[in-house]
Write a structure and sequence with these properties.
Length: 324
């Protein structure tokens, strides 16, 4: 087994920079650590909302390169978010990689090399975050309908027209904010939300989809406008969404509504390399011993040599081979 961290560039002569890692349940502290780019951190901020917070765990790393936060959530399926200094992200996931499989809903491009040491990373998407506030929002009036739980089967049928089956439940639609446009009884376009967190003042729009027969008529703009308007009225100071930067029509539609382009975001499927978790457990034990001088809450990772090391990823290693 090769210690890949030991192959990092050495630090200053005589220096042994350390990354201190600890779990936090203080939502105010977590909120503060995520404040630099709220639209980028929207998924993590949304998990500070009651109903989601109980199902999420947050780790904070402090090191020579700055602060990092990693969240592993379970309420909306296994979800991982990484924010901040890449060295801190790497230190956290070396000790606390989370569920065996997860969806990486938010990461910076510079996090990916570090994440690949702890995970197999597949189905990578290079996206952009966009966000809007009440001050920049330009609504597009239209005849839209607020979707309810009883409409779940219509929403699932629309999403299933391209790709696999969709399984949104009436409860999930009722909890979220969905608007649709109908042509008679036929649902032509819909937009909804991933997270609504009014106590955090943020929400995430998603699941925007238009039937192929109705595209090019501005329907996606209209349903997105309706969802955004309700979220802002509910008290969300910022509304975010994620868009493919190569999707010119979507960019134009969201820009028309007042959304502004923000940070690049990487999404992917991740699976722990150490499937049994033996390596992370050993590294945690060593890191807690090294952190004893700071107090029981800290686990300390040497920024240059690591703690226990990671399995090396060979150049010919196919990260998709073990995915079920």
């Amino acid at each position: 087994m090769t210690d890949t961290l030991a192959r990092h560039a050495p630090g200053p002569a005589g220096a042994t920079p350390e990354v201190r890692v600890r779990e936090s349940r203080d939502w105010r502290e977590i909120e503060r650590r995520l404040a630099d780019d709220r639209p980028f951190a929207a998924y993590a901020l949304g998990h500070l909302e009651w109903g989601l917070f109980e199902w999420a765990r947050f780790w904070i790393a402090e090191g020579p390169d700055g602060i990092a936060v990693v969240m592993h959530g379970q309420a909306l399926g296994a979800t991982t978010v990484t924010v901040g200094a890449p060295s801190g992200v790497e230190a956290i996931v070396s000790l606390h990689p989370g569920p065996r499989r997860s969806y990486l809903s938010t990461a910076s491009p510079e996090h990916i090399p570090a994440l690949r040491r702890a995970y197999q990373v597949t189905d990578t998407l290079s996206m952009n975050r966009m966000s809007v506030t009440a001050a920049t929002f330009r609504p597009v009036g239209s005849q839209v309908r607020r979707m309810r739980g009883r409409d779940a089967w219509k929403i699932n049928a629309l999403y299933a027209t391209e790709g696999g089956p969709s399984h949104y439940t009436p409860e999930s639609i009722e909890r979220a904010v969905y608007y649709g446009i109908f042509d008679g009884d036929r649902l032509a376009s819909v937009a909804g939300t991933h997270i609504v967190a009014p106590n955090q003042g943020i929400a995430i729009v998603g699941n925007v989809f238009t039937d192929a027969a109705y595209r090019g008529r501005g329907l996606a703009t209209r349903v997105t406008s309706a969802v955004t308007e309700e979220l802002l009225e509910r008290g969300c100071a910022e509304v975010a969404l994620t868009v493919d930067p190569m999707n010119a029509p979507a960019l134009a539609a969201y820009t028309r509504l007042g959304y502004r382009r923000g940070s690049p975001v990487v999404e992917a499927r991740i699976q722990r390399r150490d499937f049994l978790g033996i390596g992370p457990a050993l590294r945690r034990r060593e890191a807690r011993g090294r952190g004893a001088r700071y107090g029981a809450a800290f686990e300390v990772v040497d920024a240059w040599s690591g703690v226990g090391g990671f399995d090396d990823m060979r150049a010919d290693d196919d990260p998709r081979e073990d995915w079920a």
